[in-house]
Amino acid sequence: MSNPVFNNTAVFRDPRSRGRGQGSQRGPVLQGGVPTAGYDTRYDPATLEGMYNAPTATTAQTGRLTYDDVIVKAGGLLAVVVVAAAATWALVPQTLLFPVMIVGALVGFVLGLVNSFKTNPSPALILAYGVAEGAFIGGISEIYSGLYQGIVLQAVLATMATFVACLVLFRSGKVRVTPKFTRWLMVAMVGYLVFSLVNVLLMVFNVGGEGMFGPLRGGFLGVLVGLFAVGLAAAMLIVDFDSIKRGVEQGAPAKFAWTAAFGLVVTLIWMYLEFLRLLAILRGSD
């Protein structure tokens, strides 16, 4: 199971088959300075030689996806999330914090689904998602910060460190996205989603005792589940990197840098929230 953002976009999927005639097109073959049959004879040998000696067009010149495109778009989207979160934290009064946080979460969820299933990326909708999620993150971060001093900075640093570690491992080739890896991730994700749903239902019906995170997310079990969730998010980051690499190598259009940035930010937000919850459980047991 890969990130739905990438899985629902054809240019980032692992192709099952390739057409035999889709290789790079070769220029005309010269025989004694004369183009062979089947090629346009309007070009003289000197012109053709100049074409051969010309430098290869870059991906930027051909309008293809590049890693720089993804970095710039992802950095910009993260900046939108951070600014929206900081504005919510600093400007929204305590009496309105919870409603703003809930609205941000709901709007972010809807926009996340819309952006995940769009055939062509919409920068406006993706940026709107960043604003909505920023409002949610700003609200929930302020709540956690009021309970545990310094926890937000710890969660941010942990998320950044994990991102860098995943990127280094992926670039080094020590962690590879294989069919076995994706099958394991699919089973683990489904299991975690079912577990989370059961925990929410128990909270709603007040079964198993009260708790900030539900009866199944407290104490030692909560720590184990939190570590498992962080591990899942890290594995999803590895899959995201692989999807982006595939998109670049397959010559995806440059506009899909927005899709790649959106997918990365979705995973990073999930990881940050899991770190925030895990650290809160650990700090609460001190």
Total number of β-strand segments?
A: 2
Q: Structural class, from secondary structure content? A: mainly alpha
How many structural domains does the protein architecture include? 1
N- to C-terminal distance: 36 Å
Mean pLDDT level: 83
**Largest sheet descriptor:** 2 strands, antiparallel
Q: Determine the fraction of residues in helical runs and give it as a percent range.
A: 55-70%
Which spans of ≥5 residues are poorly predicted at pLDDT below 50?
16-43
Q: Order of strands across the widest beta sheet?
A: 1-2
Based on CA inertia axes, which overall geometry fits?
Answer: globular
Strand and helix order: HEEHHHHHHHH
> How much of the residues is beta strand, in percent?
under 5%
Number of helices: 9
If you compute it from the alpha carbons, what radius of gyration comes out, rounded to the nearest whole angstrom?
24 Å
Would you kindly provide a written description of the structure presented here, covering whatever features stand out?
- This protein has 286 residues and is an all-alpha fold.
- The protein has one domain (62-284).
- 68% of the residues lie in helices and 1% in strands.
- The protein is built from 9 helices and 2 strands.
- The chain has helices at 4-7, 45-53, 67-91, 94-117, 123-147, 151-172, 179-204, 219-249, 257-284; strands at residues 30-31, 34-35.
- The chain has a two-stranded antiparallel ribbon.
- Helix 5 (123-147) packs parallel to helix 9, helix 6 (151-172) crosses helix 9 (257-284) and helix 7 packs across helix 8.
- The longest helix has 31 residues, at 219-249.
- It is globular.
- This is Membrane protein.
- Keywords: Membrane, Transmembrane, Transmembrane helix.
- It holds the Pfam family BaxI_1.
- Residues 1-36 are annotated as: Disordered.
- Residues 1-10 have a biased composition (Polar residues).
